[in-house]
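My convention is simple: the sequence line spells out the residues, with the fold written below as integer tokens. I include a record here:
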Amino acid sequence: MTNSFHHQSIKDLGKGFEITGETSDGIIEAIESKENCFYMGVQWHPEMMIARGNKNMKKVFDLFIEKAKY
């Protein structure tokens, strides 16, 4: 589930990335690196979803913080 509407989105995925989140109408909402480095991109607003009570969105930030410690 996402909370945004887009007038732009990813058309061609960059080398080494995979789609890990997509809306039912085909808009790419999340990508991650398939390689050794940690790269993650999201196009929705997880911070706003947390503010509205969606505790699952905190996982996005928890993972970022965990990876940033290294």
Q: What stands out?
A: Strands lie at 17-22, 28-33, 40-42. DSSP finds two helices and three strands in the chain. The helical segments are 46-51, 58-68.
